[in-house]
Design goal:
The protein contains 9 helices and 2 strands. By secondary structure, it is an all-alpha fold.
């Protein structure tokens, strides 16, 4: 399968699965009498697209086809290349790019879910997602797991949250329509932020 096809299949698979998720969300929100506005679904698809682009185009997430190729060549899947010393080579341009790369993550989380309008949950989720990415790169032959990336990705998440907080009040009417409450709701609503990540990680790996 060509790279272009795998990229398209990843997007289509994620879109279909999130569309199904949204059908369940709509039904559940009706049962709970807590309406979810179309703006939430719209920004959810943007979040999905951002995650796919990030994993496929930026970070080099492992794929099943690559593992199959390595198996045929009798080469190891586990290819650890680690940097555990922060900024031992100074501050490089890639560090700045990592900050920019993760800012949409920190911006879209509070846009979509009220839980992340508090700083610490957003920072924690950014740290966890970045850690998943760095861990996955132990299984990619041309990538390194770098403590600098973990730090800068988390910083980018924080800056994205700050940008949202600055724009939240001028765009109050929109931000009130985009977010849903994940406390005291059905499980599918409560775990929606994590289902997004699971769907996209799975799609990126399979294709």
């Amino acid at each position: 399968m060509s790279y272009a096809k795998s990229f398209i299949y990843s997007i289509l698979t994620s879109f279909i699965l999130i569309f199904v998720l949204n059908l369940f969300l709509k039904k559940t929100s009706t049962d709970y009498k807590k309406k979810i506005n179309w703006q939430h679904y719209f920004f959810g698809y943007l979040f999905m697209l951002y995650l796919i682009l990030s994993l496929k185009e930026v970070v080099g997430f492992p794929s099943l086809s690559e593992w199959q190729r390595l198996a045929v060549l009798n080469k190891p899947i586990f290819n650890p290349e680690l940097n555990l010393v922060p900024f031992k080579d100074g501050l490089e341009i890639s560090a700045i790019l990592n900050i920019i790369f993760f800012m949409p993550f920190g911006f879209l989380l509070p846009t979509l879910w009220r839980k992340f309008r508090s700083f610490l949950p957003t920072l924690g989720y950014g740290l966890i997602f970045s850690f998943i990415i760095e861990l996955s790169q132990l299984f990619v032959s041309y990538r390194a797991s770098d403590i600098n990336d973990l730090i800068m990705n988390t910083l980018g998440t924080a800056l994205g949250w700050i940008v949202f907080s600055l724009l939240r009040f001028p765009f109050r009417k929109l931000t009130e329509k985009t977010a849903v409450q994940t406390y005291n709701t059905a499980a599918i609503i409560k775990f929606e932020p994590y289902v997004y990540i699971l769907i996209v990680l799975t799609s990126a790996f399979i294709f």
